[in-house]
Design goal:
This protein has about 450 residues and is α+β, with helices and mostly antiparallel strands. It has 15 helices and eleven strands. Strands 6-9-10-11-8-7 form a six-stranded antiparallel sheet. It has a five-stranded mixed sheet with strand order 3-2-1-4-5, with helices on both faces. The termini are far apart.
Length: about 450
């Protein structure tokens, strides 16, 4: 059987054993006070090398006497070095200076200790050399204001490793800014939208676009819903892309809980950030010259299907995202599939609009025309389905639907106008308000009374 060397468990125990070697022999002798004094004085003239030290040194009689009695009464435990009670508390600083330094760090968390000390010395609020940056750093560590913890969310907030209970329970959504591409000689921005399953790290939707709008996110969401069904919840950041009324309404109709990370809490979105890092290192950094979004997207999808979804993942205990995702979908818990009608109902948005006198109405910043000329000037409900953005919107008025189509001003210049005003019958109408009041005043029988049966 292999035997391991038995030695001190740490530096503290090594120091205690060193002290016991010096005074231990004296504790086993029956010495009078004078003999003990003489023995300690003799030991104080010898040089000793303490654990971890490169130099030898002597120890005073009082120190050796303290070790002697501590070892006699408490054994090796009495010789363990005790840390200072004020360790790490910056003894060189007054209470007012400590308060000032802590207040500065809380208000300016990104300022280094060296910069803070240098500034206070320049301002005359600290004497030069009175305190070192190392001392200030120890003060910040004790107060939970060191830069490591501040970068991790600030204030020493506890973080725990967490994960959704199963695939399909939670999706993460985010946007990554890629390098711009040139199309027809013009530089166009690249925004890569993604939805990732939390429990399996499986990317359920990924697409590069030129814009970063709510409607872009909804389009990606629709494609993921059609292929994978609805998740229980979706977790997004606080950008305007994810804060729109349309997305909130669609999630509510589908029974999907919409969650947003706290502002400024970047580590809460760590899984998506790690995914973007993987995508950059494995694909985006090696794209070279791309001439279109189609060329970019086919490369992104190839990276997903041929590498990422198949590669073992450390956080999945060596399993691949595809393995974990498929196992979760075929297990006891299944994802509810959506039919097309439910999807269209959930993603149909409605808004109140007034039809202009020229029979036009504005929907999502575009101008459309309605064929129902009688609706000019009326307040109507404009609607559109976000499942297919190429599908034109429509107007709901009463129980009828009226399609909208883009305005064609040139074509309208050749169209014949419809007469929507009521046409006269050609016969005069007996209508005389002053005479009706006069008849009432003099007690005359109204002309529309029982005597003439309401005739003209």
């Amino acid at each position: 059987m292999d035997e391991k060397k038995l030695g001190p468990k740490d530096h503290t125990e090594a120091v205690a054993l060193f002290r016991a070697e010096i005074v231990g022999a004296l504790t086993r002798r029956d010495l009078s006070s004078g003999e003990l004094r003489t023995a300690l004085e003799e030991l104080s003239r010898k040089r000793w090398r303490s654990p971890g030290s490169d130099h030898t040194r002597t120890y005073g009689v009082s120190t050796l006497e303290r070790w002697y009695y501590a070892y006699s009464r408490h054994g090796i435990g009495g010789l363990l070095p005790q840390p200072r009670s004020d360790r790490g508390r910056a003894r060189e600083l007054t209470s007012e200076q400590r308060t000032l330094l802590i207040d500065i760090r809380r208000e300016h968390p990104h300022a280094s200790a060296a910069l803070i000390v240098r500034t206070l010395v320049a301002d005359g609020r600290l004497e030069s050399g009175a305190v070192s940056p190392q001392t200030v750093r120890r003060l910040y560590v004790e107060a939970g204001l060191d830069r490591v913890r501040l970068r991790g969310g600030g204030g020493g907030k506890q973080r725990l490793r967490w994960q959704a209970e199963r695939p399909g329970a939670l999706w993460h959504g985010d946007v990554c800014h890629g390098a711009a591409i040139r199309i027809d000689g013009k530089s166009r921005p690249v925004r890569i939208h993604a939805l990732m399953d939390d429990a399996s790290r499986y990317v359920v939707a990924l697409e590069a676009m030129h814009t970063e709008r709510e409607v872009d996110m909804l389009g990606l969401f629709v494609r993921a819903l059609r292929r994978h069904g609805a998740s229980d919840a979706i977790y997004l950041d606080n950008g305007s892309t994810y804060r729109g009324e349309h997305l909130r309404t669609a999630c509510a109709r589908l029974g999907v809980t919409l969650l947003h990370a706290r502002p400024g809490d970047a580590p809460a979105r760590g899984k998506m950030e790690r995914w973007w890092r993987t995508l950059r290192e494995g694909c985006l950094d090696f794209l070279g010259s791309i001439a279109s979004l189609h060329d970019l997207n086919v490369r992104l999808w190839a990276f997903l299907d041929e590498h990422y979804h198949r590669a073992p993942h450390a956080s999945l205990l060596g399993h691949s995202p595809a393995q974990v995702y498929e196992a979760g979908r075929t297990g006891e818990v299944t994802i509810d599939e959506l039919d097309e009608k439910k999807l269209r109902d959930a993603l149909t948005v409605r808004m109140r609009r007034r039809v202009r006198r020229d029979s036009t109405v504005s929907v999502d910043g575009s101008l459309y025309e309605i064929d129902g000329a009688f609706l000019a000037g009326q307040l109507v409900t404009a609607a559109r389905c976000l499942v297919d953005l190429s599908e034109p919107p429509w107007v709901e008025y009463g129980k009828k639907w009226f399609p909208l189509h883009p305005v064609d001003p040139v074509g309208n210049s050749r169209r014949r106008r419809k007469d929507v005003e009521a046409k006269s019958t050609g016969e005069p109408v007996d209508f005389d308000p002053p005479r009706a009041l006069l008849d009432r005043a003099v007690g005359r029988t109204p002309r529309g009374g029982s005597e003439n049966g309401g005739a003209r």
